[in-house]
């Protein structure tokens, strides 16, 4: 009887440890476990269409995560989505003002993220600057509709 109780307690502890590990992994994968410290600097990029981009989406450079989307607002003058990017402090004085930003999709149906491509200009981005060279999200539904409408005309 005592041996059976010990087995039950051990199995219960093992199950709790497994659930805690799964919860930790879920937070790491989703990006919610990121510290809320504001280390780094913010720049802005405006896009005609952001697709499914959300706050806290990744910002990458050469496939490496170098920041997060801090906020998304609507520019009422030009009716564009203006995205505030929180970039890693190590990129300060390294990205040039002609850096390009494009909204990409992780896989066919994956999450949207912003990919940065450095430029060759001799001046560097500072906090509060805006990226001018932007490429909007590629919306799969729009491509399918365009393909169908073009096919029906032939």
Shape: flat
Uncertain ranges? none
- Strand order across the largest sheet: 7-1-4-3-2-6-5-8
Q: Number of DSSP strands?
A: 8
Whole-number count of domains: 2
Major sheet description: 8 strands, mixed
Number of helices: 2
Helix percentage: 25-40%
Order of helices and strands: HEEEEEEEEH
Distance between the termini: 80 Å
Overall average residue pLDDT: 89
Q: Structural class of the helix and strand makeup?
A: alpha/beta
What value does the Rg take, in angstroms? 22 Å
SS strand fraction? 25-35%
Description:
The termini are far apart. This protein has an eight-stranded mixed sheet with strand order 7-1-4-3-2-6-5-8, with no helix packed on it. It is flat. The protein folds into two domains: 33 residues; 105 residues, no CATH class. The protein is of the alpha/beta class and 154 residues long. The protein is 28% helix and 31% strand. The protein is built from two helices and eight strands, in the order H-E-E-E-E-E-E-E-E-H.
């Amino acid at each position: 009887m005592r041996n059976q109780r010990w087995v039950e307690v051990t199995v219960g502890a093992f199950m709790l440890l497994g659930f805690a590990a799964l919860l930790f992994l879920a937070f790491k994968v989703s990006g919610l476990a990121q510290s809320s410290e504001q280390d780094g600097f913010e720049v802005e990029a405006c896009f005609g269409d952001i697709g499914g981009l959300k706050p806290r989406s990744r910002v990458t450079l050469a496939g490496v995560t170098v920041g997060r989307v801090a906020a998304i607002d609507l520019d009422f003058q030009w009716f564009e989505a203006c995205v505030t990017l929180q970039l890693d402090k190590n990129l300060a004085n390294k990205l040039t003002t002609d850096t390009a930003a494009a909204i990409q999709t992780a896989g066919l149906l994956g999450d949207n993220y912003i990919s940065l491509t450095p430029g060759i200009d001799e001046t560097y981005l500072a906090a509060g600057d805006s990226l001018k060279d932007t490429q909007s999200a590629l919306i799969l539904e729009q491509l399918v509709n365009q393909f169908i409408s073009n096919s029906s005309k032939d």
